[in-house]
Amino acid sequence: AKCSQNGTFSEGELQPFGPIELNPSSAVLNYGQGIFEGLKAYRKDTGSILLFRPEENALRIMMGAERMCMPSPTVEQFVNAVKLTVLANKRWVPPTGKGSLYIRPLLMGSGVVLGLAPAPEYTFLIFVSPVGNYFKEGLAPINLIVENDFHRATPGGTGGIKTIGNYASVLKAQSIAKANGYSDVLYLDSVHKKYLEEVSSCNVFVLKDKVISTPAIKGTILPGITRKSIIDVARSQGFQVEERLVSVDELLDADEVFCTGTAVVVSPVGSITYLGKRVQYGNGGVGVVSQQLYSALTSLQMGLSNDEMGWTVELD
Ligand code: PMP
């Protein structure tokens, strides 16, 4: 059954960054009717700017909008709005190798509701910010804790889309993990408490005997665009990649573990702690395969290697 709302978005305009007005009884503030996206613009060494697969973010926000009973911009509107915003903020795109411009599209029920219902009006906006590495470790291994008490998503819930409430629900587990010295939390499925799902803001991969495995997309994890891209890059480099149920036992027994996401790119995992037991991968340094995939993806995103897949969109 579909819940899409029909509606068209007006042309839109560029505005200086600053506070926006929202009605106190807007659906987004009261009922969390909001979704967002995250993508990056990199500067090529020639000076021009590259977006990475922006139409994938457009398709994902459309899918999320349907789940949240919201209308969404078309792929063309989304990609054009991203391009316009980035071009207007060109000077904030760092030089090659010095970071990127993070782009945050946000779609929300800005119309007024009192009883629980989808909003009668919606706002789509985009803001940007220059960023460096997501984890303070940079391309150094991160240390994750496997969460056994809190869950990020349940079957039938909204774990498969980028809705704002998913991030509110992980704040507590993440804060506890950080206070205990971990970089982030790795969630397990809420039914068996046995299969890997994902980290608060990235997907997870395990390598064992040259085979790379990652949890299959089944509605409770976000279909990451980096995840999808890394699967293709790894296959093109001759790796066997499996999308399936991956158990926590396999995680503990892996040769290498890494996470993928727009913000984290490819982050090697140095250690995992599960029920008080800590497992270190290799010598705790950056794994060979993680490093290889990181280099392949980042050189594509920065325009340093030949984009055979046609994934980058160049802006002058
Ligand atoms: N999982 C979650 C929960 C996320 O927030 C993100 C970041 N968007 C990802 C995975 C990775 O997705 P992507 O590669 O598209 O950034």
UniProtKB/TrEMBL annotation:
Please indicate if the UniProt record lists RNA-binding as a keyword.
Answer: no
Q: Which GO terms describe its cellular component?
A: chloroplast
GO molecular function list: branched-chain-amino-acid transaminase activity
Q: Which GO terms describe its biological process?
A: amino acid biosynthetic process; branched-chain amino acid biosynthetic process
> What's the cofactor?
pyridoxal 5'-phosphate
Give the similarity note: Belongs to the class-IV pyridoxal-phosphate-dependent aminotransferase family.
What's the protein here called?
Branched-chain-amino-acid aminotransferase
